[in-house]
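Students often ask why we bother encoding 3D structure as a string. The short answer is that it lets us treat folding as translation between two languages. Here is a chain of 63 residues written in the first language.
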Amino acid sequence: MKEKINKKFSKILNNQLDGVGVVEIILILVILIGLVLLFKDQITVIVTKAFTSIATDANNIVK
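And here it is in the second language, the structure alphabet:
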């Protein structure tokens, strides 16, 4: 009896966790693209500073 209940519970749990639908993936992509567009200038500044810092540090290591 206990084994039967465990199998049913496992089946229900697996059905709820199986796969991500296309709609969910599209919604996540839309949200990510929206955030990138919203914070485009800030992201550009951060990436530029990071690469400048990397180049400076690399030059200091090579010297």
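Translate back mentally: Residues 21-63 form one domain. Keep this in mind for the problem set.
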